[in-house]
Amino acid sequence: MIFLVWLFTGLLVSCGPTEEPFTYEIQVRDTATGEAIANAVTRAEIGVRDVYQATTDANGIAQLNIEGEHLGDWAKIIVEADDYKRHSVLVHMLAESRAATVGLEPLSGGPPAGGPFPPPTLTSPQPATDSETITATGAQTEAAGD
What we know:
With 146 residues, this protein is an alpha+beta fold. It is built from 2 helices and 7 strands; from the N terminus they run αβββββββα. Strand 5 and strand 6 (87-92) form a beta hairpin.
Protein backbone atom coordinates (compact mmCIF):
# COMPACT_ATOMS: atom_id res chain seq x y z
CA MET A 1 0.00 0.00 0.00
CA ILE A 2 2.80 2.44 0.90
CA PHE A 3 4.49 1.57 -2.40
CA LEU A 4 1.34 2.47 -4.36
CA VAL A 5 1.02 5.83 -2.58
CA TRP A 6 4.70 6.57 -3.27
CA LEU A 7 4.32 5.58 -6.95
CA PHE A 8 1.17 7.70 -7.37
CA THR A 9 2.81 10.72 -5.70
CA GLY A 10 5.86 10.36 -7.95
CA LEU A 11 3.68 10.34 -11.05
CA LEU A 12 1.86 13.49 -9.95
CA VAL A 13 5.11 15.36 -9.32
CA SER A 14 6.68 14.35 -12.64
CA CYS A 15 3.58 15.38 -14.55
CA GLY A 16 3.68 18.89 -13.08
CA PRO A 17 2.40 21.94 -14.92
CA THR A 18 3.38 22.25 -18.56
CA GLU A 19 3.72 25.40 -20.62
CA GLU A 20 0.98 26.14 -23.10
CA PRO A 21 1.93 25.87 -26.79
CA PHE A 22 2.65 29.21 -28.45
CA THR A 23 2.75 30.64 -31.97
CA TYR A 24 5.95 32.12 -33.36
CA GLU A 25 5.39 34.34 -36.38
CA ILE A 26 7.93 34.61 -39.20
CA GLN A 27 7.54 37.40 -41.75
CA VAL A 28 9.48 36.81 -44.98
CA ARG A 29 10.45 39.74 -47.25
CA ASP A 30 12.42 40.25 -50.46
CA THR A 31 15.60 42.16 -49.55
CA ALA A 32 15.67 43.99 -52.89
CA THR A 33 12.05 45.20 -52.97
CA GLY A 34 10.75 44.77 -49.42
CA GLU A 35 7.74 42.87 -50.76
CA ALA A 36 6.25 39.89 -48.92
CA ILE A 37 7.21 36.44 -50.22
CA ALA A 38 4.33 33.97 -50.40
CA ASN A 39 4.82 30.18 -50.25
CA ALA A 40 8.19 30.33 -48.50
CA VAL A 41 8.88 27.31 -46.32
CA THR A 42 9.93 28.25 -42.79
CA ARG A 43 11.37 25.76 -40.34
CA ALA A 44 12.39 26.12 -36.71
CA GLU A 45 14.95 23.61 -35.45
CA ILE A 46 15.17 23.44 -31.66
CA GLY A 47 17.73 21.03 -30.30
CA VAL A 48 18.36 17.94 -32.36
CA ARG A 49 14.91 16.41 -32.54
CA ASP A 50 12.25 19.13 -32.51
CA VAL A 51 11.41 20.66 -35.89
CA TYR A 52 8.41 22.87 -36.60
CA GLN A 53 7.45 23.90 -40.13
CA ALA A 54 4.97 26.26 -41.82
CA THR A 55 4.51 27.98 -45.18
CA THR A 56 4.02 31.72 -45.62
CA ASP A 57 0.65 33.07 -46.73
CA ALA A 58 0.02 35.76 -49.36
CA ASN A 59 1.24 38.39 -46.85
CA GLY A 60 4.57 36.58 -46.35
CA ILE A 61 3.67 35.40 -42.85
CA ALA A 62 4.15 31.89 -41.48
CA GLN A 63 2.91 30.82 -38.07
CA LEU A 64 4.88 28.10 -36.33
CA ASN A 65 2.98 26.34 -33.53
CA ILE A 66 5.62 25.42 -30.95
CA GLU A 67 5.40 23.40 -27.75
CA GLY A 68 5.48 25.55 -24.62
CA GLU A 69 8.50 23.74 -23.21
CA HIS A 70 10.62 25.59 -25.80
CA LEU A 71 9.76 29.06 -24.53
CA GLY A 72 13.13 30.61 -23.65
CA ASP A 73 15.08 28.27 -25.96
CA TRP A 74 17.14 29.22 -28.99
CA ALA A 75 15.92 28.09 -32.41
CA LYS A 76 17.54 28.03 -35.80
CA ILE A 77 15.02 29.48 -38.27
CA ILE A 78 15.58 28.33 -41.86
CA VAL A 79 13.67 29.96 -44.71
CA GLU A 80 13.56 28.74 -48.31
CA ALA A 81 11.62 29.99 -51.34
CA ASP A 82 11.78 29.45 -55.09
CA ASP A 83 14.09 31.94 -56.86
CA TYR A 84 15.67 33.06 -53.55
CA LYS A 85 18.81 32.16 -51.64
CA ARG A 86 18.19 30.02 -48.55
CA HIS A 87 18.68 31.93 -45.30
CA SER A 88 18.90 30.99 -41.63
CA VAL A 89 18.98 32.97 -38.39
CA LEU A 90 19.14 32.17 -34.68
CA VAL A 91 16.28 33.49 -32.57
CA HIS A 92 15.60 33.45 -28.85
CA MET A 93 12.04 32.27 -28.22
CA LEU A 94 11.01 34.76 -25.54
CA ALA A 95 7.52 35.41 -24.18
CA GLU A 96 7.76 39.12 -25.00
CA SER A 97 9.05 38.56 -28.53
CA ARG A 98 7.29 35.91 -30.58
CA ALA A 99 7.98 37.21 -34.08
CA ALA A 100 10.89 37.65 -36.49
CA THR A 101 11.36 39.12 -39.96
CA VAL A 102 13.66 37.31 -42.38
CA GLY A 103 14.89 38.85 -45.63
CA LEU A 104 15.64 36.64 -48.62
CA GLU A 105 17.98 37.72 -51.40
CA PRO A 106 16.84 36.99 -54.98
CA LEU A 107 19.00 34.51 -56.85
CA SER A 108 19.32 36.88 -59.83
CA GLY A 109 20.92 39.58 -57.66
CA GLY A 110 23.76 37.40 -56.44
CA PRO A 111 27.30 36.83 -57.65
CA PRO A 112 27.92 35.01 -60.95
CA ALA A 113 28.08 31.23 -60.92
CA GLY A 114 31.37 29.93 -59.61
CA GLY A 115 31.77 32.32 -56.70
CA PRO A 116 32.04 36.01 -55.95
CA PHE A 117 35.00 36.60 -58.28
CA PRO A 118 34.81 36.66 -62.09
CA PRO A 119 36.82 33.99 -63.90
CA PRO A 120 40.41 35.05 -64.60
CA THR A 121 41.21 36.51 -68.01
CA LEU A 122 44.04 34.61 -69.64
CA THR A 123 46.48 36.76 -71.63
CA SER A 124 49.82 36.08 -73.21
CA PRO A 125 52.78 37.54 -71.30
CA GLN A 126 54.22 40.65 -72.94
CA PRO A 127 57.99 41.16 -73.04
CA ALA A 128 59.26 44.03 -70.93
CA THR A 129 60.50 47.13 -72.71
CA ASP A 130 64.08 48.31 -72.24
CA SER A 131 62.99 51.12 -69.87
CA GLU A 132 61.08 48.69 -67.61
CA THR A 133 64.07 46.36 -67.47
CA ILE A 134 66.44 49.20 -66.62
CA THR A 135 64.10 50.53 -63.92
CA ALA A 136 63.78 47.11 -62.34
CA THR A 137 67.53 46.55 -62.50
CA GLY A 138 68.21 50.02 -61.07
CA ALA A 139 65.81 49.36 -58.17
CA GLN A 140 67.52 46.10 -57.39
CA THR A 141 70.94 47.75 -57.53
CA GLU A 142 69.86 50.53 -55.17
CA ALA A 143 68.40 48.04 -52.71
CA ALA A 144 71.57 45.95 -52.86
CA GLY A 145 73.79 49.02 -52.30
CA ASP A 146 72.03 50.02 -49.04
